[in-house]
Amino acid sequence: MSRERILVVEDDPAILTGLVDLLEGEGFEVRPARDGAAALRAYQAEPPALILLDVMIPEKSGLDVCREIRRKDAWTPIVMLTAKGQEVDKVVGLELGADDYIVKPFGVGELLARVRAALRRAAARSAGARDMRPIEFGDVRVDPRTFSGTKAGKDFPVTAREIELLRFFLARDGEVVDRFTLLDEIWGVRYEGTTRTLDQHIAKLRQKIEDDPAEPRFIQTVYGVGYRFRGRPE
After folding, report:
1. Which of 24, 29, 112, 182 has its CA 20 to 30 A from that of 150?
2. Beta strand pairing status for 140-143 and 29-33?
């Protein structure tokens, strides 16, 4: 039985060695890379099941690597590794199509939980679990086949994660969904202590589908709980 391959991109040799040892000890096949150019070569030579990608690497940044991969590959999970306080990099990485980010220093349990959750979701997609029907509400139409959408005649790109969020919301139109349920269902792992990943994805999605993201019509915040989606005309 073949092992799932993970591409680990990290320029700090101590951290890279630790990640390789950890993941190999968990039964994964690991391909290491210490800069962005090497990461792209490794990705092209042996496409991985998942990419762990540090933001601050030589040659090409992690953000540049993420951008180049997402131009031709929308589904391979990309988990960004960021230093504490790099809030802009996190937001930009998510906008470019990264699936998640982990802030250094991180715990072994947290890292493995996120890696396994991302791989489970990728396996479900490859098994044909994707729904390719258009998503429509209000003046918004999203086409999962082309990762694109339109609102009031204007085009915008969408990520695989945004498509999953919209599918989930539409199935629960009008219901209040708490943040941890969304993280469980969409990311496949229960986060402890933070919901920033989810909130940043919602903020980026609102920029695309709302007339006024500051006063959202479709994805409404229910303070202290989570979100309510209203796709039906009121």
Report:
1. 182
2. unpaired
Backbone phi, psi, residue 76, to 5°: -60, 125
| More confident of the two residues 97 and 66 | 66
Give the lowest-confidence range in 2-11, 48-57, 119-128, 178-187: 119-128
Q: Which domains does the chain possess? A: 5-129 (3.40.50.2300), 135-229 (1.10.10.10)
C-alpha–C-alpha distance, residues 140 and 210, integer Å: 9
pLDDT tens track for 171-204 = 999 999 998 888 877 766 555 445 677 888 899 9
Of the CA atoms within 13 Å of residue 115, those in its CB half-sphere come to 27
| pLDDT, average across residues 140-168 | 90
